[in-house]
Amino acid sequence: MRARIGVVVLASAIPLSALVVDPRGWYPFGPGKWLVVSTLIPLGAALVLWDRPARSAGRVSLLAWLLVGWMMMAAALGVDRTYGWIGTPERHFGVLTWVLAALALVTGQALDPNRDGGPLRWGVILAGLGVGLTSTAEALGWELEVFRVTAGRLTATAGSAAYLGAWTALLVPAALGIAGDRRLGRRVRVAAGVSAITLAVACVGSGARAAWFGLAVAGVAVVIVQRRWLVAHRRLAVGGFALGAVALVAVLALSPAGGRVASASDPEAAGGRSRLDEWRVASRVIAAHPLTGVGPEGYRIAFAEGVDDAYQRAYGRDPLPDRAHSGPLDLAVTGGLPALALWLTVVALVVRAALRAVRTGPWWMAGLGVGLIAHFAGQLLLFPIAELEPVVWLLAGVVIVATTPALQRRDRVLARPVVAGVGLVAGLALVAGGLDVAADRLAARSVAASRGGDHAAAVRFAGDAAELRPDELRLHLLAAQTVIADDQGTNAALAAVSAALDVSPQDPIVLRQHARYLAQRASGTHLPDDVAAARVAAESLVGDDPANAAGWMLVGAAARLAADAPGAVAAFARAEALSPRDPQPSIELALLYLDTGAVAAAVEASQRAVARAPDDPRAQQVLERSRSAAAPSGG
After folding, report:
1. In sequence order, which residues have a C-beta less than 8 Å from that of residue 142 and are 6 or more positions away?
2. Per the count of CB atoms within 10 A, which of 169, 234, 412, 587 is most buried?
């Protein structure tokens, strides 16, 4: 009975991790989903493994746990000793998520595809219906405000077009497989068919090229594996391919998907040729840390090691990359080349089992296999997603055990204390996740209070949120912003930022904010000690990240406060060279030249500012001021 309940719990994790959204949260698509994944996977695993032995089909489980062990070592030696284990609040991909994935893989192999297939199939169907119908409604213009995330692309309950694409790559083939399995009931097949159709809308509307690539690779794999069947049923196959080709042409011609395909070669388009530049940055970081990488969640810190001036000028740092945008590179950069080798071996074994399912399995199992192939092929152009990866590894375990002969399976009864420990993890995750959701809602109330002008309430809500989850950097940064808005001064803001630095001392965003508040304090007090502190912090930023334009702006501001005009000019000029579309460095240079009497240079700098941002009122004002200062000498 416990095992059956555990299967239902695991199956429910599939739709809930895809569909949970918290409209009252500051980050509606983050804490709630992570609460579901981090709680239901270990809870379901504990219930199943309490009554059933852990089954190992081949060596995939051993390799998965070796990967976990290696990631633990990488976290211990990595650049972020806190988030390397628990994951950042934004990405959640620390060691803990790798443990959940490996646990899901083991538990999936402990399931019986025949006896437990019903709940799993309905989990896939409900996830597909929820994602597909929500996406279709969004495509028709019937979307809630919370879903309006990316203009021109569907996001639905995933909160990201790329994440939505990743879900569809897994679910579309799985839903088609269920719909085509004549051994299943009519109600199940009809629901799966509706799910597949609406998921296709989601897949196209997401504009996710990684998902399209993954599905294309999976389609080729099906053709190769089932080539004899296709030859035997050539009329049906030709008709299906012709219909698919017509649909594809129509989609490319009539939807934004065509533009997304065309932009793949556009160097200015996000995810186009710019992706190659991101991979080059990641490759440089890997070359510097080939053995154990920089640790899970360490790429946002080590990213500066791979950046050069050309990348900075082309793309800037907003937002700051925290992943390598390729699964293999992401593994190598966070865990080193051994982690990449282990992950690739696990993936190869999963794909081998998936191909077996396509060749010999029932339709619904073949659909799962195709979805897994599409997912891992898409990973070449994306990255592991914490809310999705444990679900993928759970289904991978099911496919592996379904395609492995009984003689090649090994059962091992786990000690009750071990299983109880897994259950304890679920309990701890429930508490931590509940606090995360509560803190996120308080943060949302803080933001709303700030927008409404009630800064005292904003400070209170932000402080309460940071107390609930003191390990979350963004809550401390929010608290710092609210005390500044409430006129409590930079010292109060610096205290909040210092609390964030206690959690992650090398986080680049926190360090930059710390330097910025030090500069603000120095500009208000002009005390030598404050000016010196601001200058040290700013110079430390560019020492660690010499291609960061924002850091050079802070160096320039601190040098100006220290009455070091040549140093300020050099810093602002460096920032100007690194950010060709930002008028602010040119504006600061013009103001500095005006203060030092270099009027001609001020005019030139202000003209550059206007050329960069013709509609920026600040640039226009400094140009008028520079010309006015130059007018007497010209008269």
Report:
1. none
2. 169
Q: Using CA atoms, how far apart are residues 446 and 588, in angstroms rounded to an integer? A: 33
**Structural domains counted in the chain:** 2
Residue indicated by tokens 């803990």? 96
Among 414, 436, 452, the domain boundary falls at 414
Instruction: Name the H helices within 207-298.
Output: 209-225, 227-232, 234-254, 257-262, 274-288
Q: Which stretch of DSSP H or E encloses residue 412?
A: strand 409-412
Pick from 620, 629, 622, 625: nearest CA to 599: 629
Cα dihedral 623→626→627→629 (10° resolution): 160
Q: How far is CA 31 from each of CA 10, 21, 81, 435, rounded to the nearest angstrom?
A: 19, 9, 21, 9
pLDDT at 618 over 60: yes
**Beta strands at 54-57 and 409-412: parallel, antiparallel or unpaired:** antiparallel
> For residue 410, what are the β-bridge partners?
56
Q: Exposed (0-12), middle (13-18) or buried (19+): which is 570, by Cβ within 10 Å?
A: middle
Count CB-CB contacts under 10 A for residue 405: 7
Q: Would you state the structure tokens that stand for residue 75, as one six-digit string?
A: 């976290």
Task: Show Cβ contacts of residue 290 under 8 Å, excluding neighbours closer than 6 positions.
Answer: 336, 337
Q: pLDDT tens for residues 476-523? A: 999 999 999 999 999 999 999 999 999 999 999 999 999 999 999 999
- Judged against a pLDDT cut of 90, whether residue 64 lies above it is answered with yes
Lowest mean pLDDT among 216-220, 281-285, 405-409, 512-516: 405-409
What pLDDT does 151 receive? 65
Q: Which of 392, 414, 436 is the last residue of a domain?
A: 414
Residue type, 402: A
d(CA 30, CA 443): 13
Beta bridge partners of 371: none
Residue 472 lies in a domain: no
Of the candidates 265, 270, 277, 279, which has an alpha carbon nearest to the alpha carbon of residue 326?
279
Q: What are phi and psi of 411, to 5 degrees?
A: -105, 140
End-to-end Cα, the chain, rounded Å: 95
For residue 282, give the nearest of 307, 259, 265, 261 by alpha carbon.
Answer: 307
Residue 55: strand, helix, or coil:
strand
Is the pLDDT confidence value at 269 over 90?
Answer: no
Q: Poorest-confidence range of 202-206, 263-267, 329-333?
A: 263-267
Query: What is the CA 196 to chain-centroid distance, rounded?
Result: 25
Say if CB 607 and CB 614 are below 8 A apart: no
Domain range for 602 is: 581-635
Separation of alpha carbons 174 and 189, rounded Å:
12
At 184, is the pLDDT very low, low, confident or very high (cuts 50, 70, 90)? very high
Residue 254 has pLDDT above 50, yes or no: no
Taking 90 as the threshold, does the pLDDT of residue 207 lie above it?
Answer: no
In a domain, 571, yes or no: no
Residue 596 maps to a domain: yes
* Bridge partners (DSSP) listed for residue 409: 57
Asked whether 38 and 96 are in contact (CB, 8 A), the reply is yes
Q: Is residue 264 part of a domain?
A: yes
| Structure token pair of residue 561 | 């406060």
489 conformational bin, left if phi > 0, alpha if psi -120 to 50, beta if neither: left
Q: What is the pTM of this model?
A: 0.92
